[in-house]
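We treat protein structure as text, and this decision shapes the records that our systems exchange. We quote a single record here, exactly as it is kept in our systems:
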Amino acid sequence: DADGNDITESGDVEQVIMFVFDEEEKIFKSFYLSASEVKQRKALQIVMDYPGHSLLKFVAWGNLDENVDYSNISDVKELKDLYVRLRSADSEQTDQRMAYSPSDLFYGTISVPVEYGGTTSGTSHVLEITRKTAGVTITSLNLKQWNGNGEGSYSYSVRESLDTYDMNGNLTGTRSFYSPPATFNKNGNFVAPIFYIFPAAFGKSIVVDILYNGEVIFTADRDSMGKPFNAEVGRTLNILIDFKATLSINVNVTPWNQVFQYVEYL
């Protein structure tokens, strides 16, 4: 995880697709590992005839599903064919695209020199995969009262990420924003439960817009102390916006999938 702890047996990784490329970055083999195989630390044995390749590059993606577009295994012929891209939703904005929230994605790579000679197995290598998404929650207190008790449609917009991880696991592509599901709870707070995003573009912090009937009525990119909204990979960014007489914005960063519990004193 983000703290360097081994979470192999936690079940967080539900499946892994692993690609193996040769020294010329041409596809050599591909493998699929299930959740149980990951938890059991199943070893993959690579056997090749001599003379063969001098180097093998392993690339693994975990938890790829319908929430993202990604390389079809059968279409991958070279390393450059690999990508993972946010799925796009319809949007009226033209300078950036609205994206669906990705899943809890993992990525890792390792290059291994090929050993020849002898009758015993070669050296074992471990491919470590790490998270590639950040978690975010947003809670707004007294929003409707602040907006004159308007009974229209409220929503959040969170921007912006680049929409693609390339063959080397680096962010690239088109600027994208998210519109996470959000509702007013029984206490009247406007809450977007935890959702996942790619990290902010160009090392910037994320920006949160609140919309009423499709129009932006409030924007924030930092808390009341001036601390930017930094969505860290492998952690959860909890944003609390309090629209009482004195506007207050608080941010708490918690471990993965742990939501900070705000307590209201009436």
Remarks:
- The chain is about 5% helix and 40% strand.
